[in-house]
TrEMBL record:
Belongs to the UPF0324 family. It comes from Rhodopirellula halodulae. Residues 1-31, 86-112 are annotated as: Disordered. It is found in: Cell membrane. The keyword Transmembrane helix applies. This is YeiH family protein. The lineage of its organism: Bacteria, Pseudomonadati, Planctomycetota, Planctomycetia, Pirellulales. Residues 1-21, 86-107 have a biased composition (Low complexity).
């Protein structure tokens, strides 16, 4: 995961404090109420819940009075069509109907499409469409929907920013430019030739941001709208409504084995490798890089840096490595998975267990399709749970074996809760809620399906696209080069990530394709 916006910026240590400043565990924690009203994780839940509530209310109150009859009639037509297909494939059936009348009725039936309930919001929320020669074709029929998405996200996130103590005006000043870049990414991915090569919006969004940040530099005024984690977390809570609880439980058990078995093995092995083989002098640097690479990127690095009292320069170096490799892996791994012919379920599990950033996992999974996205996001969020556990265990290890300072601060088990990524609770809660609505309401599948296809899935895609524009704008490769002096941190990261890639693929194959193959099959 990328750096939460409420965390202190780790890459800019105060010059007054000097290079010896360390990342420490806060002595006082905010109250639960304050945390729920100011924390980015909680606000991602509130924003997503509001969007889902409005989207479902519109679908519920906008449904036709005879929806059940329309669905039943459509089901009968599908059965008749299926029967006709079976008859056509089998021996010629005897019929007294004249050939001309039979052909006319078949033509009429072919023209009738099965009934599908569409959300009234569908025309008000859209993304640029496909185009071949005329670029205006991409927006000619969808510009109202694009404007609708802009107004929804701008107003919602401006309100959230103001409530969280940030500047709503600064966000609103910057957001149109960031949204325009996301629109450009969608537009580029919609070109017919580009689309044929499966070069999805995530790649273009990342490239657009990277080109700006590594050439002219990212303008300072854009930073209030570069809410990478906020966009991603909100999108993932929206995704929870799409992943029914039965599916989540099926993916969860093998996901636990992939995330909770591989992660500690890679972390411990990488730390020992750094100390015994590479002889890295700073144990805290060794530990932060190991946790960053094996658990969940920047968030894990920040939590672990506090637990082992790492210097801010060490945290900056770890974050730089994580961001650089996240960009590379996000772009390369989907292509590798496709080239090797790995199916979406295994490919998604591999992505979820190896790419550092939750957002990068979601975008890379989306490139491979909804099925891969579902698996990748589930595995990653199971792995995210280990952030708090890892920080707690590292703190205990540091106090007990590395420092052995009896006067140092005592680490309570409540530290796990403070480090826990709260947006995961939102994902699970939405999965439970919409699973209940799906199975208990009359026409529940049609109502939930209309809500997702007509509004929330479109919004989720925009959130991911905005996040990857932000990642590109935040990543400057020139700033990473000075941090790689000596080469040992880079060697540590490459070797650790190589082990992570190999071990995760083996365990994911074993869990998703052998042990739990029947349970996770769509």
């Amino acid at each position: 995961m990328n750096t939460p916006s409420e965390s202190p910026t780790p890459t800019e240590p105060s010059p007054n404090n000097g290079p010896s400043e360390t990342v420490s565990i806060p002595t006082e924690r905010p109250s639960i109420w304050k945390d729920m009203t100011t924390s980015e994780d909680w606000w991602a839940i509130w924003c997503a819940m509001l969007l889902l509530a409005i989207a479902f209310a519109v679908v519920w109150f906008g449904q036709p009075e005879n929806l059940s009859e329309l669905i039943a009639a459509s089901s009968v037509e599908e059965v008749v069509e299926a029967s006709a297909e079976m008859t056509a494939e089998g021996p010629v059936a005897e019929t007294t109907e004249p050939a001309e009348e039979q052909q006319a009725s078949e033509a009429e039936a072919a023209e009738e499409e099965p009934y599908e309930y569409v959300s009234p919001l569908k025309s008000f929320l859209a993304k640029p469409g496909k185009w071949t020669e005329n670029p205006l074709d991409a927006v000619s029929s969808s510009w109202k929907g694009i404007l609708g998405v802009f107004l929804v996200i701008a107003s919602l996130f401006a309100f959230a920013s103001q409530t969280r103590g940030k500047s709503a005006s600064a966000f609103l000043t910057a957001f149109p430019a960031v949204f325009a870049l996301a629109t450009l990414a969608y537009w580029m991915s919609g070109q017919s030739v580009v689309k044929a090569y499966n070069l999805e919006y995530a790649l273009w969004a990342l490239l657009v941001g990277l080109i700006i940040s590594n050439t002219i530099g990212t303008p300072t005024f854009l930073r209030p709208a570069m809410l990478t984690e906020f966009f991603i977390k909100t999108g993932l809570v929206l995704l929870g409504a799409e992943v029914l609880m039965s599916r989540l439980l099926a993916l969860g058990l093998p996901g636990v084995f992939v995330a909770w078995l591989v992660t500690p093995v890679v972390l411990i092995t990488t730390y020992i490798f750094g100390q015994k083989v590479l002889k890295i002098q700073s144990k805290s640097l060794n530990m932060v890089i190991s946790a960053d690479m094996s658990v969940c990127g920047v968030s894990a690095a920040i939590a672990t840096a506090a637990a082992c009292k790492a210097k801010k320069e060490e945290l900056s170096l770890s974050i730089g490595l994580s961001l650089g490799f996240t960009v590379i892996m996000m772009a390369v791994m989907p292509a590798v998975i496709t080239a090797l012919g790995i199916d979406p379920i295994l490919g998604g599990a591999w992505l979820g267990g190896t790419i550092d950033s939750t957002g990068a996992v979601a975008a890379a999974g989306a490139v491979l399709g909804d099925e891969a996205l579902e698996v990748a996001a589930t595995v990653k969020m199971i792995q995210n749970i280990l952030i708090g556990v890892t920080a707690f265990c590292v703190a205990i290890y540091w106090v007990t074996f590395v420092e052995r300072d009896p006067s140092g601060p005592k680490i309570g088990i409540s530290e796990i809760w403070y480090r826990f990524p709260k947006f995961v609770l939102g994902f699970v809660a939405m999965s439970i809620l919409f699973s209940i609505l799906y199975s208990s309401l009359t026409n529940g599948p049609e109502l939930v399906g209309a809500m997702i296809s007509g509004s929330t899935k479109t919004l989720r895609g925009w959130f991911f696209c905005l996040a990857f524009v932000s990642i590109g704008l935040e990543t400057n490769f020139r700033q990473l080069l000075p941090q790689l002096k000596g080469g040992k941190p880079l060697v540590l990261y490459v070797c650790g990530q190589s082990l992570n890639l190999c071990l995760t693929l083996v365990v994911a194959w074993l869990m998703f394709k052998v042990v739990f193959a029947d349970a996770v099959a769509p």
